[in-house]
Amino acid sequence: MQESDTNSPQEKSKITIQSTAGLKFPFTIAILSLMAVEPALAQQTSQSAVCSADKLPGMIEGFFQLTTGLGIVGLAVVWQADSLIEMFTLNPEQKKGLKRHKRSAMKSTIVLVVLGPLYTVAGSMMGLPLAQCVDLVPW
User: N or C: which end of the chain has fewer CB within 10 A?
Assistant: First the structure.
């Protein structure tokens, strides 16, 4: 008998899963490298087009201000809802879960508020053309 015939169905599925997992890493690297290279190529041509457009930089700034404002309002709603639910929850595990959810919402909002100014400052220091014509500071 061959060795593959002696393997049980469970062992065959483990081998199949392992070989599939082994293929995910190179595939992921290939996709990420394509995603990283494509924006770099697009920067050479499209960045000047964004800055030269009449209303596009203002629209980008307005969109960023709108999404940042909605993120802050969303944090307030999530925080208040979690606090209200926490008052009526008796199970300590559920209370811990609600506190984790509140911390996660706070971290997300901090990232949202910090990304715009960080891109504006770092982009202008690095000489990125989009940072020259679009101000992403939300206030």
Answer: N
